[in-house]
């Protein structure tokens, strides 16, 4: 059967036509543009309003080309058609000239709505000078025109000009009053905001909330709460604004009390509580809020992932990010940066690569902060090639990226390359900051470049506005100490203009361990005890020094001292990623792993191969005064050796074995792993608390200087 042709009338009050037009607009507003188009096509009778509804719908759903095609085939147009066209063309900055051209060619006298549409476009895209010029040219203005330009001034931070326009307005509604009030609050001019609030002839819940939020954002939380308590009515935004104020001020207990009193728990409030609990270290409370939420958005997921990441619940952060992706939630910038930080901390390279792929899918590879985090992740996972590739592809680079590369190469023992990047950075016109100098000095320290380190340190006073801080002096003490210049390092500490901190004395202590200098170590340990009375680290090191020099009685007394003072020593542990799982090993506890039998067998096999290669265990790395056989047995079960053994069992040949350790690698294990790499023809990359060690063919990238 042949359908009758579509008829067109410029206008019609027929109920069916009016209902169809309303349906088109409603579907388009809901994002169902295909449904709107189908409703339009099904109409046997269309009016100009029908075309206008579809035209506006296409623009609203970011389909400007389709909108323009509708405009071109309209049988007739009215002023509303041109208003819809101009409004749509202002949505994108590059079509603003087309919007201005359309305004100039309207065959009808433009209305105030027409002018205001273009005015809103200029303000939206930050073209305030064009907005002011158009506003002054408008033959007629209404309170909406004034309010749009008022918002433009406030967005640009031009508060005084905004106030001048506000005073010029012939009529002000509550929206204009509230906009001016919010502008004062955002500028920190809270007294003027309150004066304006008190002058308002009429206030609504938005006005009250703006004033409460203004107090809260400007650190006056108690005043915010007083005003909040006397509000005639409150909505979800009011409660959430007060909640944000408490969290921003670090008053999480008050925020929790308010949160529990809220009649409803809207999504932004729940997200804010997760952030607040995470900042306070209350991970269980953050998790409880997350699990009770019926609705979650990307902000919810990024908040709980951040809470896990900043409190070192790293495995939970990884599993939550994976769950988020499984649920089809697109990651946002904060969640990507958090999870890259987790991947870097755990050195889980395979998972980091997956996050990189997710970044590419979401086009986050153009964001400088996300790419900086990506570079850091690859560096800390031991993959310098990937880090360098990401670094080279991104422009323009900021100082954080340069610093990441300099520090990364330094930590991998590639001092020459690190210093070459340092030179490239200055040649590129980038001004080094304090962290840059720390990276360059670290490169010199890890590679024994004493002269270069002295030159860089001295250049800080002459070539830059940055004065050496405690971190820079710590690098110099480390540099001199590693080179065996312990007396000079101690003199530098005594003459430095700053009070030496625990890091500086710790650097000297580590150098004393390397060069077995008990006398200076005792000086360093005494100072460390005053600065960190609960830290066992320096005394464990001093005990190592006594042991390595055969002073068993002193070592025994030191251990008794540690025990009597109830000092804390971080237990040594190592881990390795395999099959997207992190396998953890603790020194002396090989039986804790589910595959302990195979690991023990591999350790025994390695012992035999090491003995055949001339390896002899260095018992000075065992604190206890026991016989040599017991020392050898103790060294065998150090956590890094267990992790290497597991890697040999699981990681395919041709792939590097990547091991992480929370403390500095044991000197005996360092010697053993060099030989293991040679015997097994495998590359082993070990990241300890200070740096990377690349073991291959019997050599280490640190050249035994660490």
Protein architecture, described:
GO terms for molecular function: RNA binding; zinc ion binding. It holds the Pfam family PPR. This protein has a domain of 128 residues. Helices cover 65% and strands 5% of the residues. The strands form two sheets. It has a six-stranded mixed β-sheet with strand order 4-3-5-6-7-8. Strands 1-2 form a two-stranded parallel ribbon. The N and C termini lie far apart (89 Å).
Summarize the structure.
This protein is mainly alpha-helical and 706 residues long. It is elongated.
**Assembly state:** single chain
What spatial order of strands do you see in the largest sheet? 4-3-5-6-7-8
Cα distance spanning the termini? 89 Å
The largest sheet is: 6 strands, mixed
Number of strands: 8
Poorly predicted tracts of residues: 622-632
Helix % is 55-70%
Structural class: mainly alpha
Radius of gyration: 34 Å
How would you describe the shape? elongated
Instruction: Please indicate the percent range of residues in DSSP E strands (runs of 2 or more).
Output: under 5%
List the helices and strands and how they pair.
Layout: E1 7-8, H1 15-29, H2 33-41, E2 45-46, H3 48-60, H4 64-72, H5 79-89, H6 96-104, H7 112-124, H8 128-137, H9 143-155, H10 159-168, H11 174-186, H12 190-199, H13 205-217, H14 221-229, H15 236-248, H16 252-261, H17 267-280, H18 283-292, H19 298-310, H20 314-326, H21 333-346, H22 349-361, H23 368-380, H24 384-393, H25 399-411, H26 415-427, H27 434-447, H28 450-463, H29 470-482, H30 486-495, H31 502-515, H32 518-531, H33 537-548, H34 552-564, E3 573-578, E4 581-586, H35 596-612, H36 628-636, H37 639-650, E5 657-661, H38 667-680, E6 684-687, E7 692-696, E8 699-700
Parallel strand pairs: 1-2, 5-6
Antiparallel strand pairs: 3-4, 3-5, 6-7, 7-8
Helix pairs in contact: 1-2, 1-3, 2-3, 3-4, 3-5, 4-5, 5-6, 5-7, 6-7, 7-8, 7-9, 8-9, 9-10, 9-11, 10-11, 11-12, 11-13, 12-13, 13-14, 13-15, 14-15, 15-16, 15-17, 16-17, 17-18, 17-19, 18-19, 19-20, 19-21, 20-21, 21-22, 21-23, 22-23, 23-24, 23-25, 24-25, 25-26, 25-27, 26-27, 27-28, ...
């Amino acid at each position: 059967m042949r359908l009758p042709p579509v008829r067109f009338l410029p206008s019609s009050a027929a109920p069916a036509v009016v209902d169809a037009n309303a349906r088109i607009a409603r579907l388009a507003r809901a994002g169902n543009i295909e449904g709107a188009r189908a409703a339009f096509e099904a109409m046997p009778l269309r009016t100009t309003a029908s075309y206008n509804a579809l035209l506006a719908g296409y623009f609203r759903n970011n389909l400007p080309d389709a909108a323009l095609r509708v405009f071109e085939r309209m049988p007739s147009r009215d002023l509303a058609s041109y208003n819809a066209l101009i409004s749509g063309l202002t949505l994108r900055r590059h079509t603003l000239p087309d919007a201005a051209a359309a305004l100039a060619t309207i065959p009808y006298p433009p209305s105030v709505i027409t002018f205001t549409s273009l005015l809103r476009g200029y303000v939206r895209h930050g073209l305030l000078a064009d907005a002011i010029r158009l506003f002054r040219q408008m033959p007629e203005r209404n309170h909406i025109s004034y309010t749009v330009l008022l918002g433009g001034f406030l967005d640009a931070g031009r508060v005084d000009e905004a106030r001048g326009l506000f005073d010029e307005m012939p009529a002000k509604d509550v929206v204009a009053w509230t906009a001016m009030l919010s502008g004062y609050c955002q500028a920190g001019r809270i007294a003027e905001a309150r004066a304006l609030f008190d002058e308002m002839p009429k206030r609504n819940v938005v006005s009250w909330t703006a004033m409460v939020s203004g107090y809260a954002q400007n650190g006056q939380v108690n005043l915010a709460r007083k005003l909040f308590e006397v509000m005639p009515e409150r909505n979800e935004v009011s409660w959430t604004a007060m909640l944000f104020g408490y969290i921003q001020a670090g008053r999480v207990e008050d925020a929790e009390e308010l949160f529990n009193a809220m009649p409803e728990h809207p999504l932004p409030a729940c997200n804010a509580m997760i952030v607040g609990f995470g900042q306070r270290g209350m991970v269980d409370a953050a998790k409880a809020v997350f699990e009770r939420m019926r609705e979650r958005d990307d902000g919810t997921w990024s908040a709980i992932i951040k809470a896990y990441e900043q409190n070192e619940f790293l495995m939970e952060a990884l599993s939550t990010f994976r769950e988020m992706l499984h649920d089809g939630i697109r990651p946002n910038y904060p969640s990507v940066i958090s999870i890259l930080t987790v991947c870097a901390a755990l050195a889980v390279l395979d998972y980091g690569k997956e996050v990189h792929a997710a970044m590419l899918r979401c086009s986050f590879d153009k964001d400088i902060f996300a790419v900086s985090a990506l570079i850091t992740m690859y560096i800390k996972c031991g993959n310098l090639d990937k880090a360098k590739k990401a670094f080279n592809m991104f422009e323009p680079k900021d100082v954080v990226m340069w610093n990441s590369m300099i520090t990364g190469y330094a930590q991998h023992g590639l001092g020459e390359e690190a210093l070459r990047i340092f030179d490239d950075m200055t040649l590129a016109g980038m001004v080094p900051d304090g962290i840059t100098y720390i990276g360059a000095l670290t490169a010199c320290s890890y590679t024994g470049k004493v002269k270069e380190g002295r030159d860089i340190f001295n250049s800080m006073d002459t070539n830059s506005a940055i004065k050496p801080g405690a971190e820079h002096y710590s690098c110099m003490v480390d540099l001199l100490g590693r080179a065996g210049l312990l007396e000079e390092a101690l003199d530098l500490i005594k003459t430095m203009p700053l009070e030496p901190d625990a890091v500086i004395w710790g650097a000297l202590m580590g150098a004393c361990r390397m060069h077995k200098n008990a006398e200076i170590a005792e000086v360093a340990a005494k100072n460390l005890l005053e600065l960190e009375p609960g830290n066992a680290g320096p005394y464990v090191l001093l005990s190592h020094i006594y042991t390595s020099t055969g002073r068993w009685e002193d070592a025994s007394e030191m251990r008794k001292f540690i025990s009597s003072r109830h000092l804390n020593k971080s237990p040594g542990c190592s881990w390795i990623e395999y099959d997207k799982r992190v396998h953890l090993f603790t020194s002396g506890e090989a039986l804790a792993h589910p595959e302990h039998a195979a690991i023990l067998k591999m350790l025994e096999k390695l012992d035999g191969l090491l003995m055949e290669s001339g390896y002899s265990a260095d018992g000075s790395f065992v604190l206890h005064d026991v016989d040599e056989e017991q020392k050898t047995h103790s060294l065998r079960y150090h956590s890094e050796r267990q992790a290497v053994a597991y890697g040999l069992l699981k990681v395919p040949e041709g792939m590097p074995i990547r091991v992480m350790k929370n403390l500095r690698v044991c000197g005996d294990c360092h010697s053993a792993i060099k030989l293991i790499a040679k015997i097994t023809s495998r590359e082993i990359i070990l990241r300890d608390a200070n740096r990377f060690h690349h073991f291959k063919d019997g050599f280490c990238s640190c050249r035994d200087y660490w």
